Amino acid sequence: DTIYAVLRGSAINNDGSAKVGFTAPSIEGQARVIAQAQADAGVDPSTIGLIEAHGTGTTLGDPIEMRALQQVFATSGRTEPCAIG
Fold first, then answer.
1. Staple partner for 40: which of 2, 8, 9, 29, CB 3.0–4.6 Å?
2. Is residue 10 situated within a structural domain?
C-alpha cells in the first residue's frame, strides 16, 4: 500500500464560554490548539508549506480560523509563504 501521509501529532480543545458562539470557536482557543498540535508533532511552523484548513465557508468561522493561523504562524519567522487549502 502507498503511504500518502503520516500523522505526527494532534490536539483537541474546547473553548467553553470563551468562544464567539455555541457553534464558533474563539481565535485564542483555535490558535492554542493549533500550537499544541504542532508541539505534539515536534514540527516548527516555519517548515510547514501547506495548511488544509477547516474552511466552513462562513462569514463567522473562516475569519476566526485565518486569524488563529496568523497568530500561530506570525511568530515562526518564516520567509516563504504558506499555502492554504
1. 9
2. no
